[in-house]
Amino acid sequence: MRIGLIGTGRIGAFHAATLAALPAVGRLVLHDAVEQQARELAGKIGADWAGDLDGLLGSGLDGVVVAAPTAVHDTLVRAAAAAGVPVFCEKPIAVGPAATRALLAELSGSGVPLQVGFQRRFDAGYAALRDAVAAGDLGRLHTVRACTADPAPPPAGYLALSGGIFRDCAVHDFDSVRWVTGREVVEVSATGADRGDPAFAAAGDVDTAVTVLTLDDGTLVSCTATRYNGAGYDVRMEVAGSRSTLATGYDERAPLRTTTGAVSSAAPYDGFLSRFHEAYVAEMAAFTEVASGLRPSPCTGGDALAALLIAEAADRSLRTGRPVRVEA
Ligand SMILES: NC(=O)c1ccc[n+]([C@@H]2O[C@H](COP(=O)([O-])OP(=O)(O)OC[C@H]3O[C@@H](n4cnc5c(N)ncnc54)[C@H](O)[C@@H]3O)[C@@H](O)[C@H]2O)c1
Q1: What local confidence, expressed as pLDDT, does residue 78 receive?
Q2: Cα–ligand 1 centroid distance for 13 (angstroms)
Q3: Which of 83, 209, 309, 323 is the most buried (most CB within 10 A)?
Q4: How distant, in Å, are the alpha carbons of 138, 193, 221, 244 from that of 147?
């Protein structure tokens, strides 16, 4: 099949290399606003490149991956849908709930499938948590603990456009909590701290945050996020129930030591590309199946909106100091 990719930056270059190696992908066509970047990457991985968007979308694609910056996601998804091309879009699919709802309303009549880039849904550990919950192995859930910790803050320029720690970082936990538990979040309380670079305050952001979620069955969830985890990139989740507790993320590369010396022995994960390498590959393989009509989207636009609404509620709670109900 023939797949296009828009945006050959950090995550786009990784997805491009993955797609080039997938047996299902016969031809890969890259496009970037910086033409030379797309051309150079295409040369390295044996792909083609297109100098403009119309040229890309008009080249007989079976699917297209959007990995350009957030601000242009909805425009690019719209263009793909107008061309009738199934689309994978990195999260978030639009800036804010209104733009997300408008995009989803337009897509709903198009019949063009959309898959959103919450790659933890393809991580074996998260999938095992979901299976254990669905099988009832843990009993009645009482607590979920989720953690996303970046080793170092992103550049100040990125912070200003990121949407803040809840929309940019903790949103992966918010999606994972919904996906693993199969429940919806009804209420959010959040707090945050700024004790690092003044760029966070300048961007109206915090460098560390804790969010408490109440699920629609009463299960309580804590999500911790920080940009200053010197030990490495740390993403874990524990799901505890009346019968048993199951955790993921405590493998040999977890950037974590215990007082008994347990857990990490190998080089700790340095970022999302090393921690979720296999999940990203599985995610792209799944998209080729979605684009071929072999399976429905495993992460829909509705899922993207739900996670965003939790992030919006967390942001409002941080600013008001009050619990916030999640918009329906
Ligand atoms: N799911 C994840 O784990 C994950 C991880 C990283 C980034 N992301 C998301 O992926 C997106 C890209 O992030 P990044 O860190 O790779 O950004 P980046 O800045 O490294 O790369 C973006 C690329 O898009 C190109 N570009 C800009 N405008 C364009 C346009 N209109 N058309 C075509 N190309 C254009 C830029 O030249 C650049 O090469 C963001 O929305 C981000 O939130 C998701």
Answers
A1: 97
A2: 9
A3: 209
A4: 20, 16, 11, 20
119 lines ligand 1 (CB under 6 A): yes
E strands, 131-184, are 141-149
Domain of residue 140, residue span: 121-275+306-325
Among the residue ranges 124-138, 253-267, 285-299, the one predicted with the least confidence is 253-267
Domain end among 85, 112, 139: 112
CB atoms within 10 A of CB 199: 18
What is the value of pTM for the model shown?
A: 0.97
Domain count of the fold of the chain: 2
Whether 189 and 235 map to the same domain: the answer is: yes
Tokens of 212: 């408490």
The residue count of the chain comes to: 328
34 lines ligand 1 (CB under 6 A): yes
273: exposed, middle or buried (Cβ count in 10 Å: 0-12, 13-18, 19+):
middle
